[in-house]
TrEMBL record:
Composition-biased stretches (Low complexity): 336-351
Protein name: histidine kinase
Pfam families named among the record's database cross-references: DUF4153, HAMP, HATPase_c, HisKA
Signal peptide: none
SUPFAM superfamilies the UniProt entry points to: ATPase domain of HSP90 chaperone/DNA topoisomerase II/histidine kinase, HAMP domain-like, Homodimeric domain of signal transducing histidine kinase
Region spans: Disordered: 321-357
Localization: Cell membrane
PROSITE patterns: HAMP, HIS_KIN
Catalysed conversion reaction: ATP + protein L-histidine = ADP + protein N-phospho-L-histidine
Domain Histidine kinase: start-end pairs: 121-332
Source organism superkingdom: Bacteria
Molecular-function GO terms, alphabetical: kinase activity
């Protein structure tokens, strides 16, 4: 059951105002705490937003749950299940709507019950006279019996029985539909009862009727026709259950503003347990004592008394027989009939509500179905543990062993929670994530470590979802942050399971008492013993310090990220459903013409490249006004984008191209194969341009990274060609993912900053040019290489931070350890120089 803290509020508008106010207050409070604690904006802002959205979700669920329950209940009612009800605890307009919905459901359930009973009972009641009538007519038709008066009277009796039943049903249907308004007038009771008794005598009843009215001139207000119907049905019921030559007594009297009508017979009577059922439709006394009848007479009698504002019931007779009493007002007020057992509401039946809504409901449709995940306490505790670990070891430490431990713990929780952990693709992603995380204990360069962590997070999301297409990969990455909102109902169920059913207050009370006890005794013993005070100070953080605030924010952030990833692992979206079926175009020229146009542009570009190569630098400078170094630098970025766009063109064209015939497939291979081949030439041109530019201006880590990225695009182009130009390349998306991760790992393992330092030193030795300022920005990874410079130049490439990292084991990694070793061995031989030769700036 969802939490509904705003149920006591009587207005939806006020609830919305409170919702906004609560979100703003939470946001301001969290932001203020973060600012006072020195928490970085990039950390405090996301946490503030997430907590504000969490409060919004908590309060909004209670506001919208009745609407969702009504939608769910309406869908079940449309299938014939009228037992569903919604929770109507709210006092606002939505709560009123929920209560009205429940009343409607009760009425529909009652109507449906009557419909089923009516069909069953009418069929039962009509079957007997129809069978008898059919038998008589069959005998007449076959000549078994003669059409004498006795036989015809028997057939007529059966027809009259069916006519009486249909007449009674019509009377009740008019009453039910509200089409039987009462025409009030003065009614002489004695005349009414005598006329009813006379009609019964004419009908051939073998009983004696006695009429008693006190006072004899009693006059009441009522509908004469309906009262006559009431008396007639009571007399018919009494005469059928009386023995031959028995007496039926009809009496009327006055008392306390009412008049009463009593009908007594000498039959077997009605048992107390059956007296109420006798007034139900088809709740016949035939079932009780075999007296016959349609089972509608007493039901009609009750409706007539209800229409007049009275009551009717069986009472205990003075002697043998049955005694029916109807109490009616002397001057009834026109009003709707009172509820009777036929229209009484049934007890509300609880139904399991749909899963509580989240802020992402309806965003993904069938792509990410909501599963009622059970509570998972181990996963919750694992995420909390990772958050506590992160808040303890990460603050005030550079990337190193501490970050690796946190990443390893987080990955372990996610892998354990994953529904796909036995899938080979997921296991491969897990191993690669461990490899990417290990870069934090291998390299000191933050840019490569952060890049590996970002790639590892994306790979982790892909592994948890298990997609098999580029679109599925993108969905997987975006599903992780959305899981933080989508998983809130699951988190609520897990917290309730953690606290235990019925033990929530006890748990809270225990925690509060324990904290108070620890605080009181710790303060007492700390004031009494200095050593104990030191121990307490080392173990207990200073809650008022900035350090503690930062640690709390980091713990919440990391724990929340792991918790969101855990929900993604438990309930991954069906990402491959998003990969829509390809719809080829009808005409070949619709896809072939654009591809050939792109091919022509590529050919023209390669002709321009050939003109530059054969024309030389003079031709280039005379034509464009650029030196060759400026020329190659200007176009590298554009060529990289062109390569990526070419892959997109190949993908789109392969999906739109028809491939039913061999000729269609031939044109796909020729046109797209030519485009891929030309793209490889462009990749080679881009790499050549970067090589020329680096020779002219030096090497940097960014340029090396871009080289690797361009090379990876070239690998994808080759893979596309090998895979049959996307005709049968279902493996291509995962190959592109793993090859990109592999190249990133290779780049990290070769020590890119050390390699860049080496290339710049070799260029300096060959040309006498070097950018000392850039070399000073490199990390400790480059120190072993920079230490190979001559002693009079080595400090031109260093700053005072090189090789002087703290010996904190939480910051340890291979790069820093090597730098410290080099610095400790050679620092005595180094001396600062004010003049650094060959300085260049790009």
């Amino acid at each position: 059951m969802s939490v509904r803290p705003l149920d006591v509020v009587r207005s939806v508008k006020v609830k919305l105002g409170l919702l906004v106010a609560a979100s703003v207050i939470v946001a301001i409070t969290v932001a203020s705490i973060g600012s006072a604690g020195g928490v970085p904006v990039l950390l405090s802002v996301p946490i503030t937003i997430v907590l504000a959205l969490a409060v919004t979700q908590l309060l909004a669920v209670g506001m919208t749950s009745p609407l969702r329950e009504m939608t769910h209940a309406a869908s079940r009612m449309s299938t014939g299940d009228h037992s569903v009800r919604v929770t109507a605890s709210s006092r606002d307009e939505v709560g009123e709507l929920a209560r009205a919905f429940n009343r409607m459901a009760e009425d529909l359930a009652e109507v449906d019950r009557h419909r089923r009973e009516l069909v069953a009972n009418v069929s039962h009641e009509l079957r007997t006279p129809l069978a008898a009538l059919s038998a008589v007519l069959e005998n007449l038709a076959d000549g078994v019996t003669e059409p004498d008066p006795e036989t015809l009277r028997a057939a007529l009796a059966q027809g009259e029985r069916m006519t009486a039943l249909v007449t009674d049903l019509l009377d009740l249907s008019r009453v039910d539909a509200g089409k039987t308004p009462l025409a009030y007038e003065d009614v002489e009771v004695a005349a009414l009862l005598e006329a009813a008794a006379a009609e019964s005598r004419v009908a051939g009843r073998e009983v004696t009727y006695e009429v008693e009215v006190v006072p004899a001139d009693l006059v009441v207000r009522g509908d004469t026709a309906r009262l006559r119907q009431l008396v007639a049905n009571l007399l018919d019921n009494a005469s059928r259950h009386s023995p031959p030559a028995g007496t039926v007594t009809i009496s009327a009297g006055v008392g306390d503003g009412h008049w009463h009508l009593d009908v007594t017979d000498e039959g077997p009577g009605v048992a107390p347990a059956d007296r109420e059922r006798a007034f139900e439709r088809f709740g016949t006394l035939t079932d009780i004592d075999g007296g016959g009848g349609t089972g509608l007479g007493l039901a009609i009698a009750r409706w007539v008394t209800d229409l007049h504002g009275g009551t009717i019931r069986f009472t205990e007779p003075d002697t043998r027989g049955a005694h029916v009493r109807a109490d009616l007002p002397l001057s009834p007020t026109p009003a709707a009939p009172k509820e009777t057992p036929m229209t009484q509401t049934t007890t509300a039946t609880a139904t399991a509500p749909p899963p509580p809504p989240t802020l992402t409901d309806g965003t993904f449709g069938d792509l990410w179905p909501e599963r009622a995940l059970p509570a998972n306490i181990p996963v919750l505790l694992g995420a909390v543990g990772v958050g506590v670990l992160a808040g303890t070891v990460l603050p005030f430490h550079d990337l190193g062993l501490a970050m690796f431990l946190v990443l390893l713990a987080a990955g372990g929780v996610l892998f354990a929670a994953s529904r796909k952990r036995r899938d080979r693709f997921t296991m491969a992603c897990a191993l690669l994530c461990v490899a990417l995380s290990s870069i934090t204990i291998i390299r000191d360069a933050e840019w490569i470590a952060v890049l590996c962590m970002v790639a590892g997070a994306g790979l982790c999301a892909v592994g948890l979802v298990g997609g098999n297409s580029f679109r599925a990969f993108v969905i997987s990455v975006f599903a992780w942050p959305l899981s933080g909102l989508r998983g809130l109902p699951w988190l609520g169920r897990t917290l309730r399971a953690l606290s235990g059913r019925g033990n929530k207050l006890a748990l809270v009370r225990t925690v509060v008492i324990s904290i108070i006890a620890i605080t009181v005794f710790a303060l007492l013993f700390s004031s009494a013993d200095a050593l104990f005070a030191e121990w307490v100070g080392a173990l207990v953080p200073d809650i008022g310090s900035e350090d503690f605030g930062l640690r709390v924010f980091i713990a919440i952030a990391i724990g929340g990220v792991v918790l969101a990833g855990s929900y993604l692992a438990l309930n991954p979206p069906e990402a491959d459903r998003a990969d829509s079926v390809a719809r080829p175009v009808a005409n070949r020229f619709e896809w072939l013409a654009p591809v050939l146009v792109v091919d022509a542009v590529f050919v023209l570009f390669l002709v321009a490249q050939a003109a530059v190569i054969f024309g030389g630098d003079d031709y280039l400078e005379r034509t464009t006004g650029l030196t060759y170094a400026d020329y190659v630098h200007q176009g590298f970025g554009q060529l990289t984008v062109a390569t990526a766009l070419t892959l997109l063109v190949v993908w789109a064209a392969s999906r739109k191209a028809p491939r039913e015939t061999a000729e269609d497939r031939m044109w796909i291979r020729i046109s797209l194969g030519l485009l891929c081949a030309l793209t490889l030439v462009v990749v080679a041109s881009a790499l050549y341009r970067m090589d020329v530019y680096q020779d002219a201006y030096g090497f940097t880590a960014l340029r090396v990274l871009v080289d690797v990225f361009e090379g990876w695009l070239g690998v994808l182009v080759i893979a596309t060609m090998v895979g049959g130009l996307a005709l049968k390349a279902s493996w291509l998306p995962r190959f592109g993912l793993f090859s990109g991760i592999g190249m990133l790992l290779a780049l990290a393992l070769i020590n890119p900053e050390g390699w860049v330092a080496k290339q710049n030193i070799e260029r300096f030795e060959a040309t006498g040019k070097i950018d000392w300022t850039y070399l000073q920005t490199l990390s400790d990874d480059a120190l072993p290489t920079l230490a190979t410079l001559p002693d009079d130049q080595v400090l031109c490439a260093l700053t005072s931070d090189y090789g002087k990292s703290d010996n904190d084991w939480l910051e340890w990694n291979v790069g820093r350890a090597r730098a410290n070793s080099v610095f400790d061995k050679q620092v005595a031989d180094w001396s600062f120089k004010n003049d650094c030769p060959g300085q260049t700036v790009d």
